Amino acid sequence: MNKRIRKKQEKQRKQLEMKWLLDMAVAIDTAIQEYWQWREEMERRYVELYAEEIARRMGLIPKQ
Q: C-alpha angle with apex 33: 22 to 51, nearest 5 degrees?
């Protein structure tokens, strides 16, 4: 009987480990996606600011 209980407990432990690993993988994937979205947004903002500065220097936009 103890052997059955130990096998059941081992199976439950393995299931919990697999669930934890899957949850971690999902969390890491989400964090990576958020990072790339943030980076792309920062890149767009930088390009816009750079374009505005160049236009100002060329006299196309009046200085504020």
A: 175
Give the model's confidence band at 61: pLDDT under 50 very low, under 70 low, under 90 confident, else very high: confident
0.70 surpassed by pTM = no
**DSSP per residue over 19-61, as a string?**
HHHHHHHHHHHHHHHHHHHHHHHHHHHHHHHHHHHHHHHTTSS
CA distances in angstroms from 20 to 12, 25, 26, 30, 32, listed in the order given: 12, 9, 10, 15, 18
Q: Are 61 and 55 in contact (CB under 8 A)?
A: yes
Structure confidence by residue, pLDDT tens digits, 26-60: 999 999 999 999 999 999 999 999 999 899 888 88
Cα(58)–Cα(45) distance, rounded to whole angstroms?
20
